[in-house]
Specification:
Oligomer: homohexamer
CATH superfamily of the largest domain in chain A: AhpD-like
Number of strands of chain A: 0
CATH topology of the largest domain in chain A: AhpD-like
Number of domains of chain A: 2
Distance between the termini of chain A: 34 Å
Shape of chain A: globular
Helix content of chain A: 55-70%
Radius of gyration of chain A: 17 Å
Chain lengths: 190, 190, 190, 190, 190, 190
C-alpha cells in the first residue's frame, strides 16, 4: 500500500499526550484521521505550531465565510500542484459551500467558477500573494476595498495564502497522500 | 442559469443533418449531450473537423490504452487551466481506468499520482509538448523508447497533447461549461 | 538530404484517393507540395481533419482579411518557435498582404511592425489565447469591441490562434521541415 | 517616520502576557525588538504559532549548523524579494557564520558565494522547494544523500524553505520594515 | 514615412568628425547607412563606445567563424524580440554563411536549423548567457570543451551574447527600424 | 585565495599604456583597483569600449542624479543575480545617496525601499527594459513623462539598464568577484 509520507509516520498512540488528544478528537469528529496529522507529527514541535497556525486562520469567525477561506486554500494549492491540499480542502469546500461542483471549478480555473465578482477578486489577490507577494501594493488593497473587504479581511486572505504556501511545500516535500475518504466527500447534491 | 458558452449555442434540431445525427448518437449512448458538442456546433465546419480529429486520436486502437490517452488529456488540460476538459475527461478517465481517484491525482500533480514509471514518463513528455514543444528533441524520444514506447506511440502522445492544446484554448475562449453530470461520474469504487 | 519529418513520409501516390486528390490539387496550384501535407499524411485520418479544420478557418470569407489571418499564424507560430509555420505562412502573409517586409516584422516583434492599432490589438489577443487562454475574459472582449471586432471576429482570432497551437506542436514534434521555396517567396516589392 | 507595517502595530505592553514576556526576552538579549515581533503581534494567535514554528526549526540542534539554516533563509527570501527577511536574517547569518561577506553573496547569487559544494547543493534544493516544490522527487533526495545529508536533514532544509515561503509572504503583505540595526550588524571582520 | 528611431536622429553631416568618417566609410562599403549608426549617434559618446565594442567582438579573427558569430547574434536577438538585430544581422549571416535559409531557421528555432551539433551547443550556451547568465557554471564550460571550444572561444560566445543583450535593449527602447535593404539581402542561392 | 575571474587576469603593469594609466588613476582615487578593471582587461579592446561606455552613461551630468543612476544599476543587477555589480555599485549608491540603508533595500525589493514615487517609476521602467524590453511602448513613455522625466532622461534610464544587462552577463560569465572593500563601504550613517 502506498505510504502516506516518504518520511517515517508515527503511531498515534506513541505521540506526545497533547498531539494524541488533538488527533483523536479530530478522528472522533471526522470518522478518520486526515493524513496530514500523522505525516507532520513526525516532528511534534513543528506539528503543534502548524495546527495552531491553521486553526487560528481557518477556525475563527471573521469577515470571510469558512467556505471562502477554503476557496483560497483550494485555488492557491492547485496553483502549487499540491495533491493533498486540493483533495482534502476540496472536500471541506464542497461541504462548507454546500456545493458539489465548486471545488473542482476553483481548482482548475477560478475565473470560470460559479463565484461572485467579489470572490473572484479575493482569489485573484490570494494568488498574487501566493505567486508574487513581492509585487503586492496599494493598488491591490484599493481593489479589494472597492469590493467591500477591509484591511482585516485582506490580512485574512493574504495570511491564508501564505500559510498554504508553507503547507503545500511540506505536502510536496513529504509526498503526503490524501486519505481516500476525501475524494467523494460532499459530492452529493443537496 | 449559466450559459454553456459565451457565444450563441444552436438548437441541436437546427444543425446540419450530419452533426445532428452525430450528436444524437452521443446523447443516446451517454444519456446527455456533452456541452462541447453544442458550443462548438456554432461553427459547423470547424465542429466537424474538431470531432473527426478527436475521434481519430481517441477512439482508435493502438499502443496506448484508452485510459492512458485520457491521462494525457487530463494532465495537459489541467496545466492549461481548462475547466471543461479536466471535468469531462476526468470523468472518462475514472471510468476507463476503473479508478475513482486517478483523475484528481493526475489533474493536480501527476508526479504524485498512482501511476507506473512508464505512465509518468508518458505524461512528462505530453506536458513538454504542451508547454514547450520547441525544445522536444532526440533525448526525449530516447527516454520514451527506454520505457517501451515506439515512434508511433510517441506520435500518439504528442498528437493528443497537441490536439488538446487547441481544445483547451477553444474552451477557455468560449467559457465552455462542463455538464453537471460529469463531476460525480465514475467516483464509485469498483 | 535532411528529411522533412522524423516520422515516415508516405509517397503521395500511395495515399487514399481523397488525400491524393487534395494534395495534387495544391501542387497544381502552388507548383510544389508543401511538406506539411506529406508529413501529416502519415496518419490519414488525422490529416483529413487537420486540413478540413485549417480550411474552415483560413479559406472562408469573413470579418478578418486573409492577410490578417496569416498575421495571427505568423505571430503565434513565432512565439511557439515553429520553423515550418513561420517560414511557410510568412510567405503566404507576404503574398496576401502584398508586403515583402511584414512577415519578418510580425515574426520578430509585432509591436514594432507596420500594422494598424487595430491589427496590433488583434495580435495581442491572439498571443494571449496562445500563451494563457485561461486568463481570457470580458475585458479582452471589450478591448476588441472597441477596435470594431464583433464576437464572430473574436472567435476567428481565437480559433486561428488555437488551431496553430495544435499545428505548431505537431510541426515541432515531427521536426517538420519547410520547403526551400517558401523562404524567398513574396519578397519582391510590388 | 516610515511605519514598520501597513497594519496596526500593538504596543508591547498591551500584548497578552506570554507574547509580552517572549518579546521582552528577545529585547533583553538583542538590545532591540525586531519588528517582525510587533508587526505579527497584531494577531496574537497567529503570532504565537509563527514564533513557535520558527523556533522549532531554527533554534534546535541538528544536522545543519545554525549558519547553514540562515543561509537557507537568506537565499530563499532573496528569491522572494523579501526585504525584512534578507536584511534581518542576513545579519544573523553574518554573525553565526562569523563572515561579514557571506550574507550579501548568498542573497545575490549563491552559486558564486564562498560556500562548499555541499552547501550549494543544500541551497539548490531549498530554492527548488521554494519555487517548485511540486517537482521535488527521488532524484533530489539522492543528490542530497550523495552530499551526506540524510532524510532528517532534508526535512530540515525543506521545512525551513517552506516556513520562509510563509514568512516572506507575510512580510511582503504587511510591508514589514527591517530595523535599522540589522543592516550593519556583523559586518566587522573577525 | 516611419522614423528610424523614436528619439531625434542626427544628420550625418552634423556629427563629430570621427563618427562622420566612420559612418561614411560604412556607407561606401555597404551602399547605404545602416540605421543603427544614425539612431545611436544621437548620443555620440555612447555611440563611439558601442561601435568600438561591436567591432572588437565581431570583426577580429578568432576561434569562431564570422558566420558563427552572426548565428549567436541572430539567435539571441530573436529570443529578445529585437526587430533591428534579427533583420540586419540575419542579412549578414546569410552572406557570411553563403546560405539563404540559415538566418530564418536560426531566428525561429535553432534546434531545427541546418547546423552542426557543435554549433547547436554554441547557441544553447549563448542563449543561457542571454536568458539566465546567473546560472552559468562549470558544467556549461565542460560541455563546450567537449565540443572543442576552449576558454577563449567561450568568452567570445558569452561576450557576443552579452553585447547583444545591450544592443537588443537599445533597439527596442528606441524602436529602431531596420533598413529595407536588409530584408532581401543574401537570399539568392549561390 | 579565490580568483577574481575564471579567465586569466593580467598584471596591471603588463597592460597597454592607456589601460594602465586609466586603472592606476582609479586606484589613486579609490585606494584600490576594482576587480572589474582587471577581469575585463584580459581583452583590452573590449575593456576600453566597456569603460568608455560606462563613463559616458554614469559620469556625465544630466537629468538623473548620480545616486539615481546607481539605483538603476543596483535594481537591475539584483534582478540578474550579478554579485559583482550589486556589491560594488551598492557601495557607490550608499555613498552617492549618503544613505547606508538604500542599497540593500533597492537590491531586495525596490517597491519597499525609501524612494519617491518618481524614483519607483524610474526603477519599474528600468526593470522592464532589463527583463522585457520588447514590450516597451508609448504607455511606458507617457507614465514617465507624468513623473517629469523627458525623453532624454528616459534614454538615460533605458541605456543604463541596457548597459548593465551586458555588464551583469560578463560578470556572471567570468565569475567576477567583488573586492572585499565594497561590502562595508558607505555603511556608516552620516
Amino acid at each position: 500500500m502506498t505510504p502516506i509520507s516518504r518520511f517515517p509516520v508515527p503511531d498515534v498512540l506513541d505521540l506526545p499526550e497533547d498531539l494524541r488528544t488533538r488527533i483523536l478528537a479530530v478522528q472522533e469528529k471526522s470518522g478518520f484521521i486526515p493524513n496530514v496529522f500523522l505525516a507532520l507529527a513526525h516532528r511534534p514541535a513543528e506539528a503543534r505550531a502548524f495546527f495552531d497556525y491553521h486553526d487560528a486562520l481557518m477556525e475563527k469567525d471573521g469577515p470571510l465565510t469558512k467556505a471562502e477561506r477554503e476557496m483560497i486554500v483550494v485555488a492557491t494549492s492547485a496553483a502549487n500542484e499540491c495533491q493533498y491540499c486540493v483533495v482534502a480542502h476540496g472536500a471541506i469546500l464542497r461541504i462548507r459551500a454546500k456545493n458539489p461542483l465548486i471545488a473542482d471549478q476553483v481548482a482548475v480555473n477560478y475565473r470560470k467558477a460559479d463565484l461572485t465578482d467579489r470572490q473572484k477578486a479575493m482569489l485573484a489577490f490570494a494568488l498574487k500573494v501566493s505567486r508574487e507577494a513581492q509585487a503586492v501594493g496599494d493598488a491591490d488593497f484599493e481593489a479589494l476595498h472597492a469590493h467591500g473587504f477591509d484591511d482585516e479581511a485582506i490580512w485574512d486572505i493574504g495570511a491564508i495564502a501564505a500559510f498554504f504556501a508553507l503547507s503545500n511545500r511540506m505536502a510536496n516535500l513529504t509526498s503526503m497522500r490524501p486519505n481516500g475518504e476525501f475524494y467523494a466527500m460532499g459530492r452529493q447534491p443537496r
